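Researcher: I'd like a structural prediction for the single chain below. Treat it as a standalone chain; there are no partners to consider.
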Amino acid sequence: MMIHSETWAGTPSDPYTWLLLRDSAPTPSGAVRRLTAAAEWLADRLDDDPDDPRPFPGATLRRWLDDRMGHEDVEHRLSTGAYVPEAVRVTGPGHVRYTLAAMPADGCVCHRPRTLVGSRADAAVMSPAVAGGWPR
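Model: Treating it as a single chain, here is the predicted structure.
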């Protein structure tokens, strides 16, 4: 069974707008390893400001990286064939929501993300990239 691990960015009302990363793994434990690698990649890009006492997205992602029981839960859910639409979700600067998700590849026709080119008017015409297995 192949499992897709995905990292998405979007708005609070449409969190699955831009596909940032996608990887596949043959096992649930491999998918969790892909998700943790994606969380580390994203945390490095959303590093915290040491002069600001508020929790930043990087801190939330780093806590999830150390959450072994949370990883086991995701692995168990994937082993039963379940979708995990929010292994971890954080809101970053500008209210951008980042979501790490995983789903079985069986029966899923996944679409490549569309590249948004040009003005905002172009972006409004193009539909967002959404994996075929996710509800719209």
